[in-house]
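Thread: quick sanity check before group meeting

JM: Hey all, I'm pulling together slides for Thursday and realized we never actually wrote out the predicted structure for the chain we discussed last week. Dropping the sequence here so it's in one place. If anyone has concerns about the input, flag it before I start.
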Amino acid sequence: MRNLRAGRRRLTGDLRAMAVPSSASRLVAQAGRELLRPAGLKQQGRSRLWLDDQDWWLGMVEFGSPRWSQGSRLRVGVMWLWGATPHARFDVLHPGRESTDLLNEAQFSQSIRSHCGLAIDRVEGYRRKFRGVAAAAEFLASSMPTRPTPWDQYHAGVAAALIGDVVGARAHFADVLDESADGLQWLGDLQDKIRALTELIDDREAFCAWASAVVADTRRQLKLCPLTRGAFAREQNGSPSA
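JM (edit): ok, ran it. Output follows.
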């Protein structure tokens, strides 16, 4: 009987623990509707992820759910849609990562609303920073980490090629091709893609057409609205990019 009662106590505690994250998610969604939605962001389904759609890149605000506690961890960043990734991911991540635990609903709601304010400021900063592909290319080249990943070099190479910087694009792509892909299927696939892209670098119109098609497909997989024209129509026509 003692074991049965102990089991019941554990079960009741588990059920309570399961109910609290649901309350946290409800409060996060409520704050998002009241603060993030008027700022132009949209919730992805019923998740804790909110998206700022900028055609060829996404601003992302995530209120992550900690695995071992009941609360939220704020992450704000950017995803480049030319990456051909069928799920949301952070290609650029803001260094600020505020967190809060759910102690009670009033405290948690106040903290989340404060985090929403921080998120809006950071999203607006990205909007100003990445007004055009040229600005993104400059950022990616100038902010390259000391030990860049193949994806860092890939994104910088794509952005360089889109603005007609053939030398810069080839240099970034060459760094990826110099990596050893032994046992790394993803890197081998990325290198195969880059080898194909090197054939397009000298033809800016063709490269922009490829990138526009990739962005359109990525948007489809992320269930975003289709664009009325190619993502890089200006670049494809040879127009300057801000």
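AS: nice. The longest helix spans residues 2-36. The two ends are 73 Å apart (CA to CA).
JM: adding both to the slides.
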